[in-house]
Amino acid sequence: xxxxxxxxxxxxxxxxxxxxxxxxxxxxxxxxxxxxxxxxxxxxxxxxxxxxxxxxxxxxxxxxxxxxxxxxxxxxxxxxxxxxxxxxxxxxxxxxxxxxxxxxxxxxxxxxxxxxxxxxxxxxxxxxxxxxxxxxxxxxxxxxxxxxxxxxxxxxxxxxxxxxxxxxxxxxxxxxxxxxxxxxxxxxxxxxxxxxxxxxxxxxxxxxxxxxxxxxxxxxxxxxxxxxxxxxxxxxxxxxxxxxxxxxxxxxxxxxxxxxxxxxxxxxxxxxxxxxxxxxxxxxxxxxxxxxxxxxxxxxxxxxxxxxxxxxxxxxxxxxxxxxxxxxxxxxxxxxxxxxxxxxxxxxxxxxxxxxxxxxxxxxxxxxxxxxxxxxxxxxxxxxxxxxxxxxxxxxxxxxxxxxxxxxxxxxxxxxxxxxxxxxxxxxxxxxxxxxxxxx
Length: 440
Hints:
This protein is of the alpha+beta class and 440 residues long. Helices cover 31% and strands 24% of the residues. A hairpin with a 2-residue loop joins strand 16 (394-397) and strand 17. It starts with a helix and ends with a strand. The mean pLDDT is 89.
């Protein structure tokens, strides 16, 4: 073999060894924005037995931790971007350098709309939450954080769209029919000449959060005017989509982050903490359930109320409203996650209803008890066969009837007592009442 050939092979082998041998010098590569750092492989399991998956665990660890992994991912993403391709499935390359979250695509194109039953279920569940908050003397407001692509579609790639009303628009109509107070941010944001979302992030900017806070507060009768201006400083902002796509690169975006906003919070609180307790300059007590959009929103809301609790619980525990003697309850959720409103039942006592089940036709349904605490027990179940699009579901127990939250194909409720015994279920199919009895 010629010397040049041997040299080439030697260089190739050295390059192949750099990622693994580099770990000894540089340490393992960190996790990307959408990843969890891998655990080092262990010879034994927690119980002391031999780890039979040691080789597989080692391969996975090396694959996700080799030296310069983030730099190589970033380099490849740059190359792919030259050809208009995204190297990350979760990120869409838009026009003018904009990035979009791929989970928004179904909403943007309109190809996977909520069914009429799902739409009714989401609105009905919110109506029941509003009713419960009202029973405690608290005002209730629901709001949707618009998808970035819903507001800035001119920066999206060319996709075929159905042109049908969006799920957010359809839900707004249903909420109006069911009497749920809704702070609609879509027309407010669309009318603004200012860009209110980051180009490289899936979320709104602090300016967008300020406008959202004003709209929510206005719906609650707690006026604020952050949109007209607030004390701020420009801070570097690393977009979540940018980090997913280019983990080793530095983002160039900035944010007009608020400073000296009058509220306090416990030391060590993070914007993404599951629970945040604050004391502000306003009056009254706020309970707010929020998602990642709340990370820039909560400081403005906190300053507008005397005390506030912000929760990132996936299943909204509205019993906290009673615990806090809340004056207001707010639920904020991003447009792309509206299905959570019926997929993850909230927690609060099911409201009593005056039901006459006489004459109901026999139907089939299942029911299971999911645990008990503090005088209530949780039940859930499914309805077999047909159910009307706008049918509510009622549960009879110990001589009383209760309305359940609606879930995909079924229902869930918090009922008084420890549970057990006979339950009766009632729903509507073909316009006629159907019932089933279940003994637990």
